[in-house]
Amino acid sequence: MQVADYHFGPYQLQPRTRELYKRGIKLKLRPQPFQVLVILVERSGEVVTREELHDLLWPKETFVDFEQGLNTAIKELRGVLQDSASEPRYIQTLPKLGYRMMVPVTAEQPPPPNEAATLKQIAPHDGQTNSGIALLGGPHTSGLRRWALLLGLSFLLLITLAGYFEWSRSRSRPQASGGRLMLAVLPFENLTGDAGQEYFSDGLTEEMIAQLGQLNPKRLGVIARTSVMQYQRSRQPLEQISRDLGVQYVLEGSVRRDSRKVRISAELIEMSDQKTIWSRQYDRELTSILALQGEIAQEIAHEIQLILGDEGKRFAADPKPGASPVSYDAYDLYLKGRYFWNKRSAQGFQQAIVCFQQAVTKDPNYARAYAGLADSYALTSSYNLGRQEDLMPKARAAALRALQIDDTLAEAHTSLALIAENYDWDWETAGKEFRRAIELNPGYPTAHQWYAEYLAWQGRFDQAFAEMEQARQLDPLSLSITTDHAATLYYSRQYDRAIEELRSVIDMDPAFPRARAILVLSYVQKRRFSEALAHVENLPRIDPSPGVWALEAYAYGRSGQPAQARRALAKFEQLNRHGQLNPTTFLALAYAGIGDKEKFFACLHQAFVERSNSLTALKVDPMYDPFRGDPRFQALLRQVGLAP
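and the corresponding structure tokens:
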């Protein structure tokens, strides 16, 4: 039987090879301390007495200075693990008794020797799904107390890090493109041993990303939550993570709490030499919110004085009125809503709307939740999952309510811009609102993503790609952003590049519907009909939506198979007879493929009456190329404000 490998915190212990790693980086440890660590890890949570260690490591017939040897071994262990005797994170000393490994340990059997060389470690791709499940659970008792604690501690970490980055201006350090540093806040590790407490550590991660992202966006870019949460419980080396995300700095930490106390540890790592350049540990009582806030305020003032001197107030900005909720329950519901919203599916949008509505019920002045509600209604409409005239007024009301609470909230300006673009065809207002959102929060990737799409609709592709690159830098693992970048390549007639990117999205999530649809359209434009049909015929098994049959009708029609195209169209009409989808856009797609010009233009006219967002792509979508010479098409371009 093979000896298991052990994982605790960011460390991996391999007893069979006598090696200790921290996120893939091998650490030096002498044999005797290594043996002590193996014993403590194997009996994690138990007290290992000094006598037991003596019997296991120093047989009775061996004459050594046991006390000196053991003390030296424990001291060396603590140095390697960046632990301390007075404030232990990993190894707890029980005076005159022994030691105990404090953190949860998982054992994993290594692969058989003949397979070890052929196995390849694969990191999970769908971080939104994996991390989201943990986030949804967890009790919310004493929510206000926990939320105040979370905000206070994250702000304390923020101020300390702010001082470091301000100080680092004068140092020679690696720069990202455009002279901006990039930082990833990895998911704070839950060391309680209770999966029900994941929401607390996830909430701290989210809050640190939000606050650091607003610190100095032109100087410091912070990777978005959807990308970093893919590394929750990941064993990938930091070097690989930094390459994946394109960052020069990584902040990682852990959270341990019980009914009375909480301990948060954090360290900042510079990836050029993988050296820890800052670390701090915070211990707090959960007895009084007001006392806690006063204590943290004093520490913030102290840190500012030490690190920034007279310029300390530079980072002591007042909190926005609608940026934070009054209860943790509202914030937790907001995070759930964004998790479902990021799925970009009919069910996901419905669940997101429920969560955001519950959040604003608990806190009627929570602006970010109203912005999330606006986004959910707007994308439900944009994905043709309901009637524009029903959904867009609700989206507008939610966005305006968010701005009424906090007119400096970038998310709300982004929501309003999308509505002005997709429903009003008011390109001037949409552009103004997108630019205002980016001005308020350059670190908000969705604002860059949707502004890039806005530019692409108008054929301003150079600007669109530059803006999309900003979104990709901030959220490099987002399937939605990668798909929209591929869509822009499709609109600009760069079909081969679009196909390459869309394949990468589908490799990560075979069920991501928008990526598959644009892939089929790209294959059709390349006249690679066999590949287009192979994908489209497989779609009903992946996506039960009636819309896939309209896409199939288009592909069959363009490939010169009108009979199969009409059968697919009939299937769409049969499955959609109860109005699951707004049919106008899908019928226009099908008739465009079949080549029925009169019915195609009838659908476009109806789309105009319904104020369908599908008309935003009139100027650039290759699907419309066969109809551009028709006066009716040119008249429609003028009506939606897209004429040259």
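(Above: one complete record from the training split.) The first strand starts at residue 5 and ends at 8.
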